[in-house]
């Protein structure tokens, strides 16, 4: 069974046992915490897929918080031609690594 969840403005296709990096949630971020995703857009598997309008009613995905991680570095470069203006900045997004425990439809 798989599900498409929405969190942090992004959509993820997850199955039980998957480990994904998501945007930070309003949870504390401690280890061994559980997080529940309520915005389930689609649930599929052996039976026909359930597609939400916009979300599937009664469906939820529970996950375990593993650890906070940092995303890869993104370089932000600004330049104006012929003016000698150049700026280089970097950014690393704070993420939370979670393991999907169960999918309930």
Task: Please tag this protein with its features.
105 residues; mainly beta; four-stranded antiparallel sheet
Helix and strand topology:
Elements: E1 2-7, E2 10-15, E3 19-23, E4 34-37, E5 40-44, E6 50-51, E7 60-70, E8 74-80, E9 85-91, E10 94-104
Antiparallel strand pairs: 1-2, 1-5, 3-10, 4-7, 5-6, 7-10, 8-9
Number of helices: 0
Poorly predicted residue ranges: none
Q: What is the molecular shape?
A: elongated
Strand content: over 45%
* Spatial arrangement of strands, main beta sheet: 2-1-5-6
Please provide the ordered H/E string of secondary-structure elements.
EEEEEEEEEE
The overall average pLDDT, rounded, is: 92
**Largest sheet properties:** 4 strands, antiparallel
* Count of beta strands: 10
SS-based class: mainly beta
Helix content: under 10%
Task: Supply the number of structural domains.
Answer: 1
- How far do the termini sit from each other? 10 Å
Radius of gyration: 18 Å
